[in-house]
Amino acid sequence: MKSRIVIPQAAPEAYQALMNLEKYIATTSLTSTHKELIKIRASQINGCAFCINMHTADARKYGETEQRIYLLSAWREADVYTEEEKAILALTEEVTLISNHVSDEVYQNAARLFDDKYLAEIILTIITINSWNRIAITTGLRAV
């Protein structure tokens, strides 16, 4: 692959703004499990090998099991995720595939399970990982 733009060098202020959002997410009340499930699932949907590699490693560090990581792309057919995790994964998929819109059913299910602050943190985490996926894929970051 030919060399591509390096966003932090070309647009450092914009990159820093996204980093600040990532720093905010690190301070939220979201559990490490919830954060990493969001980041892995969105990255799978987007086909971002760089982010899948990073976040599966992070998930393992936080105690996530191999089984749950392997089953994540088929979470609907797996009985290893909680009701809350399934709501988060459904919302992650619909926000990531936003052209299909976020259904009232998926949104209301998440809203029923989480308070407004936690739900906002979930949504912001989904949006942020989708931004990172797009930067990594567009600029040619590779998993090693």
UniProtKB/TrEMBL annotation:
Stretches assigned to coiled coil: none
Pfam families the record matches: CMD
InterPro entries: AhpD-like, AhpD_core, CMD-like
Domain annotation Carboxymuconolactone decarboxylase-like: ranges: 12-94
Name of this protein: Carboxymuconolactone decarboxylase family protein
Organism in which the protein naturally occurs: Flavobacterium procerum
